[in-house]
Specification:
single chain, alpha+beta, 3-stranded antiparallel sheet, elongated, about 300 residues
């Protein structure tokens, strides 16, 4: 991940990070990766509706629910856009389904401890190095001879020597070694500035270092789902659509309440600003309660002890 990313998501809604794809070895993205612009073998990949299409769908839904075409609805395009934006903001604030657990690669720069992550990153849970105490990601310390020897010897003759218990104990030994000898990087992460500070300075490896020789660290992160993913989620979309409608109704109520009566023959016309506002507030309160009931597909809270 670059130190100052300007474009955070690619066209497929994937968080942009440095790629580990090796053209010579052919390793990297597998054949089951989602790509709406190309094909997967001989099968065309499914294509998600674009954000603009989904926004237009919500706008039409709001207009028709407010009886536009039958009566005059005084909302402009900016009001519809703001209603949809506020629905997304509220959903990301209240719903666990608006977040996803993912992994990203961070390329460590020499003599650099601070990195600015994309704004969509909410939390960094852990930073894993490839080896135990190694400086670069291309050293032979990445190869673990015991694991190879165990898989080739013990597992093939599991009934006579070794066993799963021996391998489990060795894995625990590896975890303890990583804790003691730098396999896990200590860090601090500022959720507001998105600044990741590593509590270790990577040694200087000379001027004009080849990026392929820099170490890649695996970050365990939580990030916001992009708008395209939320608007195409069959469980989240109805909630976002309804909240945007209620928010737009409240805006319309504010406007109509300013002039409660329009002068005209036989006493004029009474506008429904107050009723629109009260209905919108009740609907928004009910929708927020629906999020607490996990109607959007969010996972309920687990047991909390203490």
């Amino acid at each position: 991940m670059a130190t100052a990313d300007t474009i955070n998501f690619d066209a497929n809604g994937v968080l942009i990070t440095d790629s580990l794809f090796n053209g010579n070895a052919g390793s990297g993205t597998g054949h089951i990766a989602y790509d709406p612009t190309e094909t997967l073998g001989n099968i065309s990949a499914p294509e998600l509706d674009t954000v603009n299409n989904k926004r237009t769908e919500i706008t039409d839904y709001i207009r028709l629910r407010l009886a536009d075409g039958i009566v005059d609805v005084e909302l402009d395009k900016e009001h519809y856009d703001m209603a949809i934006k506020q629905a997304l903001i509220k959903y990301r604030q209240r719903a666990a389904n608006s977040q996803e657990e993912s992994y990203a690669f961070l390329k460590l720069e020499p003599e650099t401890q601070e990195y600015i992550l994309p704004n969509e990153v909410m939390e960094v849970r852990a930073a894993y190095r490839r080896g135990i105490g190694s400086v670069t990601g291309t050293t032979a310390s990445q190869f673990e001879p015991f694991s190879s020897g165990y898989l080739n010897t013990y597992m093939l003759v599991a009934g006579r020597v070794g066993g799963l218990l021996s391998y489990e104990l060795f894995v625990d030994y590896q975890k303890m070694s990583m804790k003691m000898f730098g396999g896990y990087l200590n860090f601090t992460f500022n959720k507001t500035s998105k600044k990741l500070t590593l509590i270790r300075k990577i040694p200087f490896a000379g001027a004009n270092q080849n990026p392929r020789e820099m170490e890649d660290v695996l970050l365990h992160i939580y990030n916001y789902k992009p708008d395209s993913m939320l608007l195409n989620d069959y469980q989240a979309f109805p909630w976002i659509q309804e909240y945007a409608y209620s928010f737009a109704k409240r805006i319309l109520g504010e406007a109509r309440e300013k002039f409660a009566t329009i002068a005209g023959p036989q006493g004029g016309t009474q506008l429904n600003g107050s009723s629109l506002k009260s209905e919108a507030v009740a609907e928004m309160t009910e929708l927020e309660q629906a999020l607490r009931d996990y109607v959007d597909g969010s996972h309920p809270l687990t047991w909390v002890i203490g």
